[in-house]
Specification:
By secondary structure, this protein is of the alpha/beta class. The chain contains six helices and six strands. It has helices spanning 17-26, 43-51, 64-76, 92-100, 128-139, 157-160; strands at 5-10, 31-35, 58-62, 85-89, 107-110, 143-146.
Length: 164
């Protein structure tokens, strides 16, 4: 993962107040890259998402296939002072596809479902296919953790319970 990518998050709600306000300020984001196969190329949707952000932050929607090429171009840029990226995946399957395509990942943040105090087993929130993908990614050294806001601690333990 590029040093320019400050946060990798899976959130099917995409840009909402927590991401647009809290996380973008916390990481001083200049760009939010959304990885969503179904929304790639939808310029209208991209423009609507842009409206939820300050004009200093750009949004771009890519497919998992396009992400690696974007990453390679980003790595060629040696001026890292102004580039802080939030990489936002809509689904676990998009994270998995990006990794399969060669995109380097270390950690993936997932917002707490509903209330962190009511967390049940992961199979309550994820289907078997997603859990299988999470396990495969974990086998390759990628860590998943719950964290909703920058003020919350990273919670790895629930995801570590599903490791094989």
């Amino acid at each position: 993962m590029s040093g320019k990518v400050k946060l990798v998050r899976v959130d099917n709600r995409l840009l909402h107040a927590t991401v647009a306000l809290n996380w973008s300020r916390f990481v001083n984001a200049s760009q939010i890259i959304i990885v969503d196969e179904k929304s790639k190329g939808d310029l209208f949707f991209e423009q609507v998402l842009q409206l939820s952000l300050p004009s200093t932050i750009n949004v771009k929607i890519l497919s998992a296939d396009q992400l690696l090429a974007f990453h390679q171009e980003l790595e060629k840029d040696t001026d890292t002072r102004k580039i802080n990226i939030i990489l936002l995946f809509k689904k676990i399957s998009d994270v998995y596809s990006a990794y399969q395509n060669g995109y380097p990942l270390r950690e993936v943040q997932v917002p707490y479902p509903a209330s962190r105090f009511l967390i049940k087993k992961l199979d309550y929130y994820y289907d078997d296919k997603d859990l299988q993908k999470i396990r495969e990614l974990q086998k390759n050294g990628i860590r998943f953790y719950y964290q909703t806001t920058p003020m919350d601690a990273k919670e790895y333990s629930i995801f570590e319970q599903i490791r094989i």
